[in-house]
């Protein structure tokens, strides 16, 4: 059968890759194309989002699959063997050319390449690495490369991927082992976590070597990340948070991405009937933030969950925690420590830093706090200032209703 | 001396976006001890106060060596804020600098109005710089050597500020950036600044944009429409210069229809699990979720005690089964019965059913030829098998053939590799897998004998295990 045109194949393989949530191009080292033969630069800090699609997600990288042929049969995946989607494949050279052509026109920060498993895991991994190799060695491409690594591939192949890529990732897919056995029968949790462990070691070792030898090779300077699908199995938010904290702790991950299970064309009958609300994914990200930037322990995030083990959907987890532990409040903005201020729902890291800097110069009134934050009305019940004490407000039984965002009329066909 | 009188000093700036020029003036003003309310800043095109002003030349040159202090935070903010378009920026920045001379930590107080204002300008400028890096699009111009040209309309005077970013990223490419306030040209070695340009100076298209638009449309997930989130990060004013933005309205309009179609085509029709076997029987009769359901013929429900410890699952009803509406009554069923009896398993004490509930066939004359169900059809029917399992709760399940095995395990397995070894299922029941008896019917000679012996051995093992579990 004749191959579809490049345009058609790009459509098929971009469509097939879009269920991966991550598109970040951040956290690598500083690189520039000056003095080289090719093009591309990366920054140490944040990446650049070159466009946004109407689903609110950013396009930072060219995110495609090398092929959507797959010998695996994971039920949540649009590319599973038994799915009835159109199949296509790119050669490594074609992907490299596409990346360069897009990069030259400033459409993207680089490439995020993944693939269905063809022939064998190792063969597929070799193809992914070859693409990265063409970009880096033939074209001296210095933009961002994120390679999805395949846990079933030979460990030394997985290790090679890190030499070309800024970031490597392996998806844990589902928060519980039982879910994985049921929905991804060809995968094994032990193998996935084993591969993540190997990558973690390789990254740590390369970092250590770099400290001692200037010419030590870089290994995935932007670290590794992973993704979990939310709502495809019965796992509660508490399970998910627990799993994420284990992953952060054991494998030194930069990020755990959550992807709300969304209906896919030609879905398998084993999947749940309804999609989880998108807001659930959002609440999980918020809890992720609480753990990474606000000093919450996983147990504390879990305490914010409701009786069924899920985080409330109508209010954010920080507010949920505050409402449950009211004896912690009010916090005095003029005296409290940074850690205490970070617990106040409605105060972000930036606002807390500004409060701490500003109170060296003046004793803060409620008006001053209002200038530093988005909405002082939300914060008021939880803080004291020079001219403000919440008195009874903190302990009111209907505080949740007062602070929860107003419900809006739902879309009729939402 | 003029400086002793309460008179205003006017500073005329040549280039409003030149931080060094402003800094030079500001430094001298501080040294001459002129407070902020006595300085009027002017730049080309903006009229200042016509009365009672002296030009900067008239400044008293007192204390030229007096140190002028500015914190690092101030310089960082001022360098960006000066690029803003607000005419008050010079005055606010100068009054901040003035205050820094006596209070070195003044910039830390974000509750102060001037500090916040300067910070806000700097933030807006930084955002504009970032958005230019993000949303600028080059188009290729044909020539001896490819040349890439972009047209961009920034909010503020950030072109020069952003030059280093583009030269470091595209060092080995010939490119030009055109804006309404000036242009930049890079030939691979040297950067030139050029005059203001207009949209018509830039190329109007590029063939690669078709690929880019295809990518943009395909990477969009219609199940998760969040238009506000998109507009917040990619404001509408940038859209006119972005080739992909023309697709946005159609993508949004089509999204709900696309998702609804997917859900319909999927299994959103499966609502709640049936509460009894009788209900399963009723519902499978009208199940049309896969093409087999559309074929003529009735669905065949499982049969046996509702609390049977053993469940036997075949592939699908055959010709005879479909006509009688009962499982395992055709030739293969008779083979099964004979072997079960020989192994010591009472057929009437087992629950017998099929992985697929309807008979899949192709008509050939008067005969209906059996066809193997596809993996997808087996997966679709898995809902019913799971419903039966949940109701009967067998301790042991015997799957006959690979379709039945797929229905229970969710994956296609090799029978040769897995037969004779029990598998633990999620609900705690034990799964044994063997061949389908119809396989035995297709063999003859030595192969038939060999396979029959293997089949019998599997059934014996199941009988033994069943006795163990029941005991």
From TrEMBL, chain A:
Keywords: Iron, Iron-sulfur, Metal-binding, S-adenosyl-L-methionine. Residues 60-287 form the Elp3/MiaA/NifB-like radical SAM core domain. GO terms for molecular function: catalytic activity; iron-sulfur cluster binding; metal ion binding. Its cofactor is [4Fe-4S] cluster. Pfam families: Radical_SAM. SMART domains: Elp3. PANTHER family: ENDONUCLEASE/EXONUCLEASE/PHOSPHATASE FAMILY DOMAIN-CONTAINING PROTEIN 1, TYPE II SECRETION SYSTEM PROTEIN K. NCBIfam families: rSAM_link_UDG. This is Putative DNA modification/repair radical SAM protein. It comes from Altericroceibacterium indicum.
From TrEMBL, chain B:
InterPro entries: DNA_repair_put, DUF4130, UDG_Type-4/5, Ura-DNA_glyco_family4, Uracil-DNA_glycosylase-like, Uracil-DNA_glycosylase-like_sf. SMART domains: UDG (SM00986), UreE_C (SM00987). One of its GO terms (biological process) is DNA repair. Keywords: 4Fe-4S, DNA damage, DNA repair, Hydrolase, Iron, Iron-sulfur, Metal-binding. It comes from the Bacteria. GO terms for molecular function: 4 iron, 4 sulfur cluster binding; deaminated base DNA N-glycosylase activity; metal ion binding. Residues 301-460 form the Uracil-DNA glycosylase-like domain. Pfam families: DUF4130, UDG. Gene3D superfamilies: Uracil-DNA glycosylase-like domain (3.40.470.10). NCBIfam families: SAM_7_link_chp, UDG_fam_dom. Belongs to the uracil-DNA glycosylase (UDG) superfamily. Type 4 (UDGa) family. This is Type-4 uracil-DNA glycosylase.
């Amino acid at each position: 059968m004749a191959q579809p045109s490049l345009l058609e194949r790009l459509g098929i393989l971009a469509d097939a890759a879009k269920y991966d949530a991550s598109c970040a191009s951040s956290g690598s080292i500083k690189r520039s194309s000056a003095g080289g033969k090719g093009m591309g630069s990366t920054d140490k800090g944040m990446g650049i989002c070159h466009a946004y699609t109407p689903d609110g997600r950013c396009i930072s990288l060219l995110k495609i699959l090398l092929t959507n042929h797959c010998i695996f049969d994971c039920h949540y995946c649009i590319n599973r063997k038994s799915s009835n989607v159109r199949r296509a494949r790119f050669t490594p050279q074609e992907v490299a050319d596409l990346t360069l052509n897009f990069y030259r026109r400033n459409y993207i920060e680089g490439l995020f390449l993944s693939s269905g498993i063809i022939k064998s895991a190792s063969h597929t991994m070799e193809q992914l690495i070859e693409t990265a190799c063409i970009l880096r060695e033939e074209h001296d491409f210095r933009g961002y490369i994120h390679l999805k690594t395949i846990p079933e591939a030979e460990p030394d192949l997985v290790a090679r991927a890190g030499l070309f890529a800024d970031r490597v990732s392996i998806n844990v897919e589902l928060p519980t082992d039982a879910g994985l056995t049921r929905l991804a029968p060809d995968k094994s949790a032990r193998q996935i976590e084993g591969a993540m462990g190997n990558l973690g070691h390789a990254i740590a070792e390369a970092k250590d070597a770099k400290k001692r030898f200037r010419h030590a090779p870089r290994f995935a300077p932007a670290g590794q990340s992973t993704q979990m699908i939310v709502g495809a199995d019965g796992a509660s938010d508490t399970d998910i948070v627990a799993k994420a904290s284990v992953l952060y702790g054991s494998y030194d991950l930069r990020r755990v991405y959550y992807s709300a299970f969304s209906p896919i064309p030609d879905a398998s009958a084993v999947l749940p009937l309804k999609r989880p609300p998108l807001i659930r994914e959002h609440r999980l990200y918020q809890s992720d933030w609480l753990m990474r930037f606000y000093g919450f322990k996983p147990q504390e995030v879990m305490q914010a969950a409701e009786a069924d083990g899920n985080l409330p959907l109508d209010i954010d987890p920080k507010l949920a925690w505050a409402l449950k532990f009211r004896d912690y409040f009010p916090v005095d903005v003029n005296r409290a420590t940074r850690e205490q201020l970070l617990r106040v729902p409605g105060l972000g890291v930036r606002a807390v830093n500004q409060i701490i800097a500003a109170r060296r110069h003046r004793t803060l009134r409620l008006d001053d706090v209002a200038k530093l934050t988005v909405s002082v009305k939300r914060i008021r019940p939880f803080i004291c200032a020079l001219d403000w004490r919440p008195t009874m407000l903190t302990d009111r039984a209907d505080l949740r209703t007062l602070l929860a965002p107003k419900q809006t009329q739902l879309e009729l066909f939402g | 001396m003029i400086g002793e009188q309460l008179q205003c000093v006017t500073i005329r700036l040549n280039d409003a976006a030149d931080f060094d020029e402003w800094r030079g003036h500001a430094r001298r003003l501080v040294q001459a001890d002129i407070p902020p309310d006595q300085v009027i800043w002017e730049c080309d095109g903006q009229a200042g106060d016509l009365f009672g002003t002296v030009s900067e030349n008239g400044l008293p040159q007192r204390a030229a060596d007096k140190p002028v202090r500015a914190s690092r935070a101030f310089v960082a903010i001022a360098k960006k804020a000066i690029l803003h378009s607000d005419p008050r920026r010079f005055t606010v920045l100068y009054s901040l600098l003035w205050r820094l001379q006596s209070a070195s930590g003044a910039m830390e107080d974000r509750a102060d109005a001037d500090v916040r204002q300067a910070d806000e300008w700097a933030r807006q400028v930084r955002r504009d710089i970032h958005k230019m890096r993000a949303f600028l699009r080059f188009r290729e111009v044909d020539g001896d050597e490819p040349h890439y040209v972009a047209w961009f309309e920034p909010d503020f005077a950030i072109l020069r500020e952003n030059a280093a970013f583009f030269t470091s990223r595209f060092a080995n490419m010939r490119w030009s950036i055109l804006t309404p306030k000036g242009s930049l040209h890079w030939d691979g070695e040297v950067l030139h600044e050029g005059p203001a340009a207009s949209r018509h100076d830039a190329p109007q298209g590029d063939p690669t944009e078709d690929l880019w638009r295809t990518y943009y449309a395909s990477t969009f997930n219609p199940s998760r429409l969040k238009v506000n989130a998109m507009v917040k990060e990619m404001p509408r004013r940038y859209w006119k210069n972005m080739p992909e933005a023309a697709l946005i309205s159609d993508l949004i309009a089509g999204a709900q229809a696309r998702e609804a179609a997917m859900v319909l085509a999927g299994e959103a029709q499966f609502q709640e699990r049936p509460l009894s076997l009788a209900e399963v029987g009723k519902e499978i009769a009208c199940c049309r979720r896969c093409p087999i359901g559309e074929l003529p013929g009735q669905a065949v429900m499982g049969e046996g005690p509702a609390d049977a410890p053993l469940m036997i699952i075949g592939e699908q009803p055959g010709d005879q089964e479909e006509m009688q509406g009962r499982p395992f009554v055709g030739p293969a069923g008779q083979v099964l019965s004979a072997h079960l009896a020989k192994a010591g398993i009472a057929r009437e004490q087992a629950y017998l059913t099929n992985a697929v509930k309807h008979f899949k066939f192709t008509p050939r004359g008067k005969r209906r030829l059996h066809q193997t169900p596809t993996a997808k059809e087996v997966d679709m029917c898995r809902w019913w098998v799971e419903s039966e399992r949940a109701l009967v709760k067998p301790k042991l399940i015997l799957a006959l053939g690979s379709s039945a095995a797929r229905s229970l395990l969710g994956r296609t397995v090799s029978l040769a590799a897995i037969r004779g070894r029990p598998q633990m299922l999620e609900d705690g029941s034990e799964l044994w897998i063997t061949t389908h008896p119809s396989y035995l019917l297709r063999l003859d000679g030595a192969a038939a004998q060999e396979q029959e012996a293997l089949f019998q051995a599997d059934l014996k093992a199941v009988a033994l295990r069943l006795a163990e579990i029941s005991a």
